[in-house]
Design brief:
single chain, 263 residues
């Protein structure tokens, strides 16, 4: 009994699933994945290393502005080096780096400040505040490049320059909008546009004329020409009359001379 039971246990435990027909009928083998798709141990999925669009919208335009400012700084530094009889390359590199830092930091800070202050369309006040903050940041960085003592003066001066420049730009934008509106209204009404400033129109030798004023000027000139023509006609008549009289006087003198000769 013991031998048979142990033999049966060995048969049950050591039985190969592939040799069991019952197991082969009921089990379904899963397909093996291809070799190229098998995960490699120790490998991690590739992460997306692209720049976020919010950062790209600020970084790319700022770098462009900084590049233009840096190019201007290179030429300015070269000119300063030539004037001072100093190393031109050194002055160009230093000035280009400073101008690049100022332009990039100013424009990037201005864009970020506008996005923070104005959610939709920035107003003139938002633009002035953004330019002031951007000027302060750019002046601080420029002061750090030139020395710690120049940080506070640079921040103050560039803040004032940013606020003043933005105020002038806003004023010019408003004036341009007013001029465009006046031009549109004048075009719609089929009339000549009014001058943008009374000061220049008052002292300018050029004056805008309407169609009626132009017709009046032409009529006055025509009357003057007609008066001149009338005077010329009277003068011609007088000359012809005097010429006729001279001819008559000459013929009478000839008759008298001929009569005296016959006598």
């Amino acid at each position: 009994m013991t031998f048979v039971s142990s033999h049966k246990m060995k048969r049950i435990v050591g039985q190969n699933p592939e040799e069991d027909p019952h197991h082969s009928r009921n089990s379904v083998s899963a397909p093996s994945p291809p070799e190229g798709s098998r995960p490699v141990e120790g490998s991690s999925p590739r992460r997306n290393q692209s720049i976020p669009p919010e950062l790209a919208d600020i970084l790319v335009p700022s770098l462009k502005v900084g590049a233009v400012a840096g190019a201007c700084g290179i030429f300015t530094g070269a000119a300063a080096g030539i004037i001072r009889s100093a190393p031109t390359l050194f002055f160009s590199v230093i000035a280009g780096g400073q101008w690049f830092t100022l332009g990039t930091s100013y424009y990037a800070t201005r864009l970020m400040t506008l996005k923070h202050f104005a959610q939709e369309e920035p107003t003139t006040g938002d633009k002035v505040r953004a330019s002031t903050v951007a000027g302060g940041v750019a002046g601080t960085l420029g002061g750090l490049l030139r020395g710690p003592r120049n940080v506070i003066p640079g921040a103050v001066v560039f803040s004032l320059l940013g606020a003043g420049g933005q105020t002038i730009a806003n004023w010019r934008a408003v004036e341009a909008a007013k001029a465009a509106e006046v031009a549109e209204v004048a075009k719609a009404a089929d009339a000549a546009p009014k001058p943008p400033s009374e000061f220049w129109s008052r002292w300018s030798p050029i004056k805008q004329l309407s169609d009626q004023d132009y017709e009046n000027i032409l009529e006055e000139k025509l009357l003057r020409v007609e008066a001149d023509i009338a005077l010329i006609d009277d003068r011609v008549k007088e000359l012809r009359e005097s010429e006729r009289r001279m001819k008559e006087g000459g013929s009478e003198t000839e008759r008298n001379t001929a009569h005296s000769n016959k006598a």
